[in-house]
Every structure is written in C-alpha cells, then in structure tokens.
Protein 1
Amino acid sequence: MYHHIDKDGVILYIGKAKNLKKRVSSYFHKSHDSARLSMLVRKVADIQTIVTETEFDALLLENTLIKKHQPRYNINLKDGKTYPWVCIKKERYPRIFATRRRIEDGSEYFGPYASGKMMYTVLDIIKEVFTLRTCQLTMDQSAIESGKYEPVWSFTLSAVWLRVRGVRMRAATSLTCRELANCFAVI
C-alpha cells in the first residue's frame, strides 16, 4: 500500500499494488492525459508505504484508510459502503445475519468479506448446519410470557418447524452459538 502526501501532511491518495516500486514510479515517469492525475503528481511531497501479508489484507486496509481519511484523489470506496460482516446478535435468542454496519453491543462479528457472494455462501451453509433464529422480532421474556408469540425454531436439516418454550430453546441456542463462534474461529 502507498499514500501520496502533500507538503502539509494531508493524504492525497491511497493505493495498493503488488509491485510498489513499479506502481509508484509510474506516476512520475510518464505524462498523464488526466488533469486530475497531473494535479495529484504536482502536489505530492512525500510517499509512505505499508506492507501487508496478503492482497486481501491490503484490500481491507485500503478500504478502511480511504473511509477514514477521505483522500481528495480517491474516487472509489468513498461512498460510505463497507465490506459485509456476519453478525451473531447478542440477544436472549441469538440470530445470525449479514450486515455492513458494526454496532458495539456485545454481538459477535465475523469478517469482513471482500466478496458478498462468498459471505452469503458461508451464511447459507451456517444456517443449514446450525439452528439459529433468523426473524427480527423482539424476543424478550415479557412478550413470550404474555403469549404474544412463542419462539419458533427452524430445523432446516430435517425440514421441520418446531415450537419450543423459553428455557429449552435458550439452552439449545446458547450451545449452538458457542459452537458457531468456534466454527468461525477456524475459517
């Protein structure tokens, strides 16, 4: 990864390349048809580099740094979107879902995934193997006790819908979430 920095220490551009020397020198050894690139090259006073272990690490770091610094000459990745995560929500009856927003509420997040397709494939497999809640209802004890609704558990492997009362479902869900978190630790 590399940063073009102006004389005031402001990051102008953040980029990544497999061959940093070749990529960075290309800015200064050829003329540019684009006025934007010509202006960028004139303003560069310093270049800083960051070496990452993998291309995926570089991709994620680039995304994070562009969102943080909002460099003037980066066009892509400034749109507010971010890579998707899989979330196991910290609720009495945990649920699993995809999200692009991390909320610091004690929930567990796995990712980020550079490919949304890959993340949804993993999520679909997890939903087939583990029996987790997918609805967005507020599953607090008072609503269950009032008879407003009762937890519905989906057993996708046997394709059976089973209604379970609070205590038994909660114990099964806690065990499943621990197993699921361990599963992600291996991935």
Protein 2
Amino acid sequence: MDLSVNPEIAKKNVEAKGEEHITLVFALDNEDFGVDVKAIREIVRVPPFITRVPNAPEYIRGVINLRGNIFPVFDMQMKVGMNHRDLTEEARIVVISWNEIQFGILVDSVREVCTIYDSQIEQAGQISSSMDKKYLLGVAKHNDGRLIVLLDLPVLFDIEEILEEAKTAVAGS
C-alpha cells in the first residue's frame, strides 16, 4: 500500500484551504480567543501574587519575576473591554515574546493548540463585536463549530509604539 502523498493533490488541498496558522486558543469569560503560537514563549501558572505598578493603566495587572526576568502582566479581560472576573485554578499567564519585547497576558484558561486555515477565517470587518475591530485579525470557524476570535497582538498592545519609545530612550541616554 502506497502511503506517499501525491504532490498535485497536496497542492490543490493547500490552494483550497489556504495557508495554515498554528494557533494557541485560550478562554476569556467563556469565549475563545487565539494568538499565533510563534509569539508564545511559555505558559505558566499564575503566581500567588502579582506586584501592582503605581499609576499604571487598569489593564496592567502588575509585574512578575519569572526565573529572574521581570515581565509586565496584562489582564486580557480588561484590555478587550470585558468585565473583570476573579481568577480560578485554570487561569494562566501566557508569556509573549514579540520583537524582543516580552510580557504576559492573563487568561482564564488555555484550551488547546490547533491548526486554522485561511479558508476558516472571516475578516474582522464582517463581524459584529463590541471589541474594536482594529485589534482583530478575524474570526475562525473551528472544525467543531466553535468560533475563535483571532487577536492582533502588536496592535492590541501597541508594540510598535513601545519599540519606538525604547529606541528614543536609548538614543536620549
């Protein structure tokens, strides 16, 4: 029995489904959100306490020390405009690494890592949501029927602005 894949069939399959995106799916207030796994450094349990930062925006939960590195932790519910809820045992901090910037996002739970194809994604402009559409890459229709809101992390956290501020601070010193 020949188990090799015919290159022509594989090419047609890719053309039909589109590019694949490996996505970390997490829950916020019983809704599924997704981010590209390439941005994920690690997933950790929420420590017993997160140190508050005075005068920080409300969505900045504080900072944590993770193996000698200090990271800001953003409360995703607050950032996307949801009501704040108490943490449960399933809550996790997803540590993101983006263009040399590292930070944690606090989520209710991590659900899975899944493959999403372009053909499964509806563009953000076609979606009715209370969340600002500029933060969304789109909504994916998972094979099991669930909808996964795909977040644009660089836009959501103004990463380009943070990089510019860091460059200015270095140039000014």
Protein 3
Amino acid sequence: MTRTLILTLALTLAACAPAAPPPAPQPQPPQTAPAADQDEQRVDIRGAVTRMTQGSEDPETLGRLLVEGELEPDTHFDKALVRVTKTTRLFREGDRGREPARFADLAVGQQVAATFDGPVAKSYPPQATAREVVILRRGPSEAPSAPEPGDTAPESFEGTAGIIDKPEPDAPVATLRDVRTARQQGFDRVVFEFEGSQLPGYHLEYIDKPVRQCGSGEPVPIAGDAWLQVRLIPAQAHTEAGQPTVPERERHLGYPNLLELESICDFEAHVEWVLGVASPNRYRVLELTNPARLVVDVRH
C-alpha cells in the first residue's frame, strides 16, 4: 500500500512539473544574398558601339557610348547612351576569360555588354551610368560593313597619297547632315552626306601636326601617325538657327588604319574634318548621289 501511494505521488509531481525548455537553436552560417549572384549575371544592354565621345566637363566621366543591339531574353534595352566613369569596371573577353581593359580599348564597331548602376533616364535613347562594360569577342564588328548604297566602285584601288582638289561650284552653301564611318575589305571609309543633290568643292591632303582649330588656332590632339584633312567649300554643318547638324565632333574608331575622326572647322562656309590614321596610306574619293555624298576610302 505504501509503495503504491509513493508511486502515485511521484507520477503526480512529474505531471505538474514545468516542461523542460526546448534546446537552443544552433547558429546557422550566414547566407549569401542571391541578388548578388543575379546582379553579376545581369546585362542591361548588349550590342555594337555606334557612337563614342571621350571626356566631359565632369572630371569623373571618361566618355559616353551609344550602344545599339537587339532586345534579348537577358537584356532590358536595345539602345542606350552609356556613361563610362572612373569607377566603371572595364573588361575584355580574352583567351583566359575576362581581362582588365581601359577606356582607350573601346572603339566604334565593337560589340559590348553593359550593366547599369543607378537610375536610367527616361529619354530616347535611355541614358544611364555603367557599373560594368565588357568588350565581347564575338559580333559583326570584325566583319566588313555593307557597301554604301549606289557604290559600284571596285574594292581594290590604287589611290593616291597626294592632294585631291575639286574647285568649289557656283552653287549655294551645302549643308552637311551626316558623317558616318565603316570598315571595308582592304580599306576604311568615311562618308560625308549633304542635303539635296549638290556636293560642295573639296580639298584633301595629308597635313603635319599640330592640327589646329580653324577659328581659335588652338592645337587639337588627334590619334595616329598621319592626318588626312578634308576641306569642304562652300559648306556648313549647322542650321540657320546655329544648331549643329552633326553633333558628334570627335569619334574614336579603332579601325585597322582609321583611328579617329574629328571636326576642326565650321566657319564662314568652310567645313573641315581630319582623319587620324595609323599610316599615311593611299586613299581615293568617290562622289555618290541620291543623296549627295562624298566618300573617302583609306587603304589598310
């Protein structure tokens, strides 16, 4: 009887006793935020550099790239004006993967992939600052561009390293409305396109350094070991209201021979551009119509 009473009392006390606290949770190793991995893989735009400007009033800005491509499943834009700063990470695809690059390695015609940092301006094209730009190995930039419409001249030509001169016509001032470049098989090309059907007179020759602005006389640094001057008379590169018809005055190209193109004059019906080339090779001039175009081809 006594044993039964003691056992009953023990069971009663055990049932009334407070439950033991659960075991303390074991510390877990910190997790890496998936957003970081996703951010490394994200690309805002992938395409060709079609325009490029160097420098800015802002000392933090190295330059700007106009990138044009196609909207792909992993991109957000098909065209954008990309600002490259001193903090932008620059890479080039190499044999061993990504290799560090410099802004000077960028050139018109290259294929690049850019990731943006911060807000994107709601303009067309959108404008943004790049956190990272990668120069891609693939792409059509290595292939020659399509020929200019109406061009039936042979790809192979003798050309000249001397002066080409055509007197100015007795005609109104021609307005330059576009300047474009292309890499062709065996030569680099610059096309000056004008409004209407009339070309101005022109004078081309290799000149010595320093290259100078026509108004101020200030020296203009232009890449290359030779400089081909193209003078157009009578011509202008602005509207009657004074707005430039060709906004890009300086272009860094990186073609086989043509390295840089820069406007040095738009004054009193004189327009002048200088082609900075790696070598003063022979060149030719073509006149095309519909619209009026002056084509300058410089051999590789």
Protein 4
Amino acid sequence: MITCQYCGASYQEFQTTCSGCGATLNAPGKLKGEPVADQFRQIVDNFAEAVGQNTPTSRIAKIRQICEAYEDAKEFRPGGAIPDAKLKIAEKTFTVFPNGKEIFMFCDTHPFNKGKRGFIICEDGLYWHNNWATDTNRNYLSWDDFASRELRLDGFNEFTLKLGRGDAIGLAGLGSDEKRNKALRLLTEIKNALTA
C-alpha cells in the first residue's frame, strides 16, 4: 500500500486516482495532480480575497510582489539573483537560516556586501543577522508575529531598525539614510499588506 501525499489515504500501486481525494496518481508514491492542486489553491484564494480574507497563499504573493518593487543590483537582491557564494556565506553566518524556503529578497547590510549580515524575506517570515553592535532577542519572525510589530529606525543616526519586543536589525552597513529608509519602507509595506 502507498500513501497519498495530499490526503494520507492508502491506495494500491495499480490505481490511477486516489480514492480519498481524487488526485491523479502516476507512479508509486507520486502524484501527478500538483498543477490541479495549485489551481485549486488559487480558486480558494480568489474566493477568499473576494470575501475579504487574507489567505497564506495570497499573502505570499503580495510579499513577493512588494519585494520585486524594491529590488536593486546591490543591497536589495531578489531571491533568484543572489549569488550562490553569498547565500552559502549567509547560511554559515546567520544564526537562523531559511533552509528549504523560497527566498524573495536578501538585503545585505554588510558594508562590503559579503552576505555576512542583513535580512532575508522569504515565504515563512523574516530572518536576520546582525554584527556585535546591534543586540536582538531573536533572529527570525514568522509573518504572523511580524504583522503585530511596530517598526521604527532608532539609535545614533538611525542605524537600527527596531522591531519591538527587543528585536532589531542593524542597518549601519547600508551606508546611507536613503537605503535605511528604503529598508523601513519595504518592511512597513509588507506589514501593511499582512494586516490589510
């Protein structure tokens, strides 16, 4: 017996559809119906949006769209444009790293853009890593936790982005007030989209 990935029902290897959920099966342990499942999720999300509900899939789409509007070639890199070497450095140095998650943007706050510090916006939340000068209680917030936070620039020359409850992201390495304000606007826009 094999188990359906979608509903957990058991089925025989010779079956072409799952008796539990109706998903199309193409090989032992595999399902062919992922596009159908994606279409179904989209239908549910469209309905939920029409009645004013903010679904996880529609929230992710909004966050991705916001990140695309803020991308640039240096500090604010979209997920697909982050060099592998930089991601490997971030994976080694970040206290908490989004392994296996889709990354929408990496804001590198290291003064030489080495990938050792900054924040990562991805499908399940916000990850960050600071230098020794910026204290923080956490290095990750889920989008649900992030949505309830008050964001503000703080500290000498507003080098720190305060997230409330003792959490902070160091932005000194961005080098200019314009870039630090861009980071604040980006995260504020995401927060507003999450709470809309």
